[in-house]
Design goal:
Layout (H helix, E strand, L loop, with lengths): L21 H11 L12 H12 L15 H6 L4
């Protein structure tokens, strides 16, 4: 994000849902329009630690994501570790 912010810009928040400023919504849209934008994201360590512990405890784990109505082929490419 540093590469596409203006020099005087600073991020404050937290921002959730409709609370996002328009310029951030536009950036999010720009990033998400790039094919495979999510492939090189760093894993959220705490989330994966919780996932691993749930598996160790014997829980059946299901990852639920929003249905990709516009392009269902994209949804087929998502994989979680």
């Amino acid at each position: 994000m540093d590469k596409i912010k203006e020099p005087r810009e600073f991020l404050f928040g937290p921002f959730f849902g409709d609370n996002l400023p328009d310029y951030l919504k536009q950036r999010i849209d720009m990033i998400r329009r790039q094919p495979g934008w999510w492939k090189n994201l760093e894993k959220f360590k705490l989330g994966f630690d919780v996932l691993e512990e749930a598996r160790k405890q014997g829980f059946e784990v299901y990852i639920l994501t929003k249905d990709l109505v516009q392009n269902q082929k994209l949804g087929e490419k998502k994989q979680f570790g």
